[in-house]
Task: inverse folding
């Protein structure tokens, strides 16, 4: 089997550069992952700037989020990535970014409800602007296993979910490939800016 | 006759890169076209990111919007491009972009009326800031032929129209050349940002 | 005497690229000039995009704003540039840009009054944030000689003026060199964004 | 001992280019420094554009902020840099930037209080979003020694401080390395934009 790792790593590095250009990965926030196999993922290391990643910015981990490389520590939030790969064998990438709008909206709303936007069609299985896409907001926590359990319970009840926010902390989304997941981030950030601008006009 | 296609394609690729830099073509939204001849246009294919187009991102279509290349599917909205080329032999380019401001304004207004802006002179035949430029908003629809018929009826009544919005979906504009139409997009997006900022101050 | 023209032209081309990156020269708006000698200036031609200027984007004109190059038409607003070179032999550059904030503020205010900003020190002769810098707004007009006369009368009364706005049309500023005038534009645009953001909070 | 100077200078030049891209160092505002040794710092010269620094844009100064290079004048605000190096031998870099948000917030608030933001963890010693990070605002003054004394008195009382604002003038922050301090600027600017957007929604 040809080695996927260099291709996936290059895609995640490029995604990070694009996000940094837009201001969505400030300081050492955010983390990215992609599936290497049935039981293995590639994930960004702790403490890296995600807009300036290189080969050393990643490690291999198992689907419990434990490092498979001695001496390399995964990001604290790797458990939230691992959760998605455990839940669905079709998921090939998870991206967590940290934009101003994701932060501000998540501190004011319990969910961001998208309706009437053509760009909702950027998400899988959505053919029209007429439905609703609900992006739930979870309270922030430094206890990642507890947060992962809360997310899992929500996803069990709402399997159509395409993304979620953590309060004051940013967005998580996933997809079959890095390109698909990047498209979700781009659509979500566009829609969050629309929602923020609408909120300002609504007051 | 020298082949126009590579030149028009290069111009549309460059336009897409510029729009992406500004955030006006998120995810796989937007589509671009240019006239190749009396009965033929070049148009972006379905599902492409318009900020990262290459030679494979286009197909030739007839003025009914049907693909002239086997196995290549035009974007669903090609009918809205074809409409303009059918109506006016002088039209050489149609650009549809999808910005935050075009989205937000089209969800709140029935038309964007521009008045007193020097930049109105960027549109053909306008010599002063003193008149009004009206950009109508049409309800969004996944039924493109019905939407095209509605646009055509409006343009019959208002032949001076330089652009229109589809609600929650973005802007369409056209011109003799790619450069002219790009200038219209740049002017429209500038003016939409002005209108949004004015609306915020007006509340 | 060594030929200044290629150096000044290169500086104005680079200034235009920077302004375009910031969105301050949309479509074919804006115009730039620099002094070539006691009776001669270099000025952008009509109809050029100021973010993509090349050697052909300029012409030499006299201090009345008349072209010194057969077949090359100066921008309509060259008279507003010529006015400044006539008034003050120390002026070596005039820049007119066209930003969203300059447009919006000029449509709502009769003058933009800057006070308490450290960046006021970017203007010549200002050593503290404590004074006031007043940027007057003139009504827009397609009659450039009339507008130039109005500006001249104001400057006679207010010789400390560093810049002025034309309503819905953008800002003019000037300086001894292209670098100085570029610094004024950068400071003005920064301060206009501050003023707009303050206005939003003040409502 | 290998010479640190070229490395630190290159890091500060790159930091300035990044800040300029974001619009945080307009005109000749802002200044940067890094520690060269126990009694010596490298600091930007007066009058330079901080987004286009080269080797000539710096000078060596002592911890009193006096130039160690004949004929090169330090920026007026070097005293605010020197203060930090005097106070703490662990400080290796001080960055002062000048953004729209830092300017606007500092003109309306007596302190910017950050609470509930995950990105607070970008600052040293902070492990959770649950505490408060207070960024005090000092009145602007052209009397730098007086301002430095006021800052020093505040820091004596509040040693946990990570940054401060000067009214209408921008932000100062510091860290062990250029990379650490750059991370603080990026986090502060992100959080200031969040706070501004929250203020708009709160009115």
Result:
């Amino acid at each position: 089997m040809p080695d996927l790792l260099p291709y996936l790593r290059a895609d995640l590095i490029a995604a990070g550069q694009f996000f940094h250009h837009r201001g969505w990965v400030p300081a050492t926030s955010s983390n990215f992952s992609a599936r290497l196999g049935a039981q293995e993922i590639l994930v960004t290391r702790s403490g890296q700037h995600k807009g300036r990643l290189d080969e050393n910015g990643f490690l291999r981990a198992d689907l419990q989020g434990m490092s498979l490389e001695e001496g390399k520590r995964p990001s604290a939030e790797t458990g939230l990535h691992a959760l998605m790969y455990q839940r669905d064998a079709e998921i090939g990438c998870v991206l967590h970014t940290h934009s101003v709008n994701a932060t501000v909206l998540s501190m004011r709303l319990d969910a961001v409800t998208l309706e009437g936007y053509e760009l909702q069609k950027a998400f899988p299985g959505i053919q029209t602007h007429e439905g609703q896409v609900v992006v739930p907001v979870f309270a922030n926590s430094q206890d990642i296993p507890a947060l992962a359990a809360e997310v899992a319970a929500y996803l069990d009840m709402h399997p159509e979910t395409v993304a979620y926010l953590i309060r004051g902390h940013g967005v998580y989304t996933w997809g079959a490939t890095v390109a698909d997941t990047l498209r979700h981030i781009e659509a979500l950030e566009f829609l969050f800016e629309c929602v923020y601008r609408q909120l300002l006009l609504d007051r």
User: Anything to note?
Assistant: Chain D has one domain: 5-201. Chain D touches chain A at residues 22, 116-119, 122, 127-129, 183-184, 186-187, 189-190, 193-194, 197-198, 200-201, 203 (CB under 8 Å). The longest helix of chain D spans residues 178-202.
